[in-house]
Design goal:
The chain has 591 residues and is an alpha+beta fold. The protein is built from 16 helices and 24 strands. The chain binds adenosine-5'-diphosphate and magnesium ion (MG).
């Protein structure tokens, strides 16, 4: 066949393959147009998961009737005009492809009127061909109705996902834009039923409930931070509300929902040592940057972007999230169980300690997607930081003086605190204490203890390769290790904090850990290494402690920056509030 230039129609259908992958993409593109037109009200109507009807009606700027035919052509846009414009895009659209693409694979009606015109215009397009154009009376704004999507591309129809998955994706797009534009009133009607409506009063938390469910939305912690031209805002889940995948991390850049592994990872990393490996937080993060620092022109659906100062943005996101977590991380509370009539119904899981106290959300939720600690309360108890106004008052966050009562089962410390009873897991608590001491020490001057006799330790070839890589970090932490012949090392000194452990055993098990760890440790090698050492070095459960040791541990824990979890993310303490005790003893009416 000879080379020919494709007719516009065919070119549009090819482009449609990229821009309009599925019904949800139509909803997305049309909403973006409405938002770009400064609409205050957007109504979305969907029938049969978008295969039959997708209609988006707005009260925005409208399209001048003289331009409406043009608007449906490829590469026709009012949003960018020069190459220069491409470098600071502040609209959601800019490619001038959506309307043309959608029109080429459906039967489309557009009705629109601008504020300055008395009558509006109505255009009918079928498979990309204009069928009719009329002037008609219409309210200000634009309504785009898309019917019989993909009717002329049967191959595409065949590959559509199930109606259910399409509906859920449509709902997700709508809620995301509603979150990013809380000042706009969204109404979503599906198969004749109103599914979703926002008030447009600017309250993001209200919309958050639609995206994540009321229960979780209530628990989400506010995030706010950033530096200079980078602003970071949004919500993240507290450390005891986790998921088994990262799909609930929603990122927006300049109010555009995007997919960016790097930014999502920055959020996840902020939870480092606070949640279990393999669990993921939920988050809605808005990053705002000068438009010239973002390249949106990377992907036809605009779902991916390029950031000019990637690392800086990641850092700011991480810092903002971390700040929020430190400010709001609550002590796990206790679920209702002693002697209540449903006690026997509560299966005893590894997360329960037999008293019906659930202390580890991640253990009993394996089968559930979202884990919420049964006992979780919205209010952080220690330090009274329950509300946003207190965010950042770090001094208040740490436990106030806990009064030691004693040790139970040679494993738990019991203490009285500001509002009731605290049970402290001595091993987890000690891990946290050691972790923070070691991390802090490495930046200050290390207290090192020279060993009277150097300890000789021998590794296999492979092990010694592994340890070779970690030597600088180990040295930085205060281990004096020196090579002594092939695969053999001399340990001459250790950090003082670790002076009471079997050092050979500790280093050995570290090496074993390196072997198992195929994952790239990224920027956290050191922290993970420290966490491992601490695990080995911490007092074990079942180990009786003297009164002095108990006091010491409690006091050390109080002075930690994140006293509420061990470096692996398990809680160090659980709390039985006075209120709960009163309820359990029947002094107060049950809720
Ligand atoms: P883009 O959004 O990339 O500019 P589209 O094909 O989505 O491309 O839309 C083409 C043009 O039609 C837009 O630039 C805009 O001028 C106009 N338009 C589309 N939808 C609307 C709307 N809802 N309100 C006002 N103008 C619209
Ligand atoms: Mg558009």
């Amino acid at each position: 066949m000879p080379i020919v230039k494709l007719p516009d129609e065919v070119a549009s259908q090819i482009a449609a393959g990229e821009v309009v992958e599925r019904p949800a993409s139509v909803v997305k593109e049309l909403m973006e147009n409405s938002l770009d037109a400064a609409s205050q009200n957007i109504k979305i109507i969907v029938e049969q998961a978008g295969r039959k009807v997708i209609e988006v009606a707005d009260d925005g700027d409208g399209i001048p009737s003289s331009e409406i035919v043009l608007a449906l052509e490829r590469h026709a846009t009012s949003k960018v005009h020069t190459t220069e414009d491409l470098f600071h895009i502040n609209t959601l659209g800019f490619r001038g492809e959506a309307l043309a693409s959608i029109a080429s694979v459906s039967r489309m009606t557009v009705i629109s009127r601008t504020a300055s015109e008395d009558t509006g215009a109505k255009i009918l397009v079928d498979g990309g061909k204009v069928i009719s154009f009329d002037r008609i009376g219409s309210p200000k704004g634009t309504t785009v109705r898309v019917e019989s999507l993909f009717y002329n591309v049967p191959a595409r129809l065949k590959f559509l996902k199930s109606e259910r998955s399409e509906r859920s994706l449509i709902a997700e797009f709508i809620t995301k834009y509603a979150l990013a534009y809380p000042e706009v009133r969204f109404t979503y009607v599906m198969d004749g039923k109103e599914k979703f409506r926002t008030s447009g009063n600017g309250d993001q938390r209200e919309v958050l409930a639609a995206l994540l469910g009321v229960d979780i939305a209530k628990k989400m912690l506010p995030v706010s931070g950033g530096d200079g031209s980078i602003q970071v805002n949004g919500f993240v889940s507290p450390i005891d509300v986790t998921k088994s995948n990262r799909r609930s991390i929603h990122i927006f850049v300049n109010r555009r929902p995007i997919q960016d592994v790097g930014l999502a990872t920055a959020v996840i990393n902020a939870y480092h040592t606070m949640i279990m490996v393999g669990r993921y937080p939920m988050a809605v993060i808005f990053v705002d940057l000068p438009p010239e620092d973002v390249d949106v022109n990377v992907h036809p659906t605009k779902a991916e972007i390029r950031l000019k100062e990637k690392d800086k943005v990641f850092r700011e996101v991480g810092r903002a999230v971390r700040k929020s977590l430190l400010a709001f991380t609550p002590v796990p509370g206790v679920s209702l169980s002693f002697g209540q009539k449903d006690t026997h119904n509560i299966p005893r899981s590894p997360g329960e300690n037999g008293m019906g106290i659930r202390n580890e959300s991640y253990l009993d939720e394996a089968s559930k997607d979202v884990g919420i600690q049964g006992a979780q309360t919205a209010q952080p108890r220690l330090g009274n930081v329950g509300d946003e106004s207190k965010q950042g008052e770090f001094d208040q966050l740490h436990p106030r003086i806990l009064r030691l009562i004693g040790q139970v089962a040679s494993s738990y410390l019991v203490a009285e605190g500001p509002d009731g009873l605290y049970l402290i897991d001595q091993h987890a608590a000690h891990e946290r204490v050691l972790f923070e001491k070691l991390t802090k020490q490495k930046s200050n001057k290390l207290a090192i203890q020279k060993l009277l006799e150097p300890v000789v330790i021998e590794f296999s070839h492979q092990e010694s390769e592994l340890i070779q890589d970690q030597l600088p970090i180990l040295r930085g932490l205060g281990f004096e290790l020196e090579e002594f012949g092939r695969n053999t090392y001399l340990i001459r000194a250790i950090p003082v904090i670790l002076s009471n452990i079997d050092i050979k055993q500790a280093i050995r098990s570290l090496v074993e850990d390196f072997e198992e760890d195929e994952s790239g440790l990224d920027g956290y090698v050191e922290e993970r290494l420290i966490a491992r050492i601490c695990k080995k070095a911490a007092v074990k459960a079942g180990q009786p402690l003297t009164k002095e040791e108990q006091e010491r541990l409690l006091k050390d824990l109080e002075s930690c920056q994140s006293p509420r979890t061990c470096p692996h993310g398990r809680p160090t303490m659980i709390h039985l509030s006075v209120n709960l005790l009163e309820r359990q003893f029947g002094r107060k009416g049950a809720r």
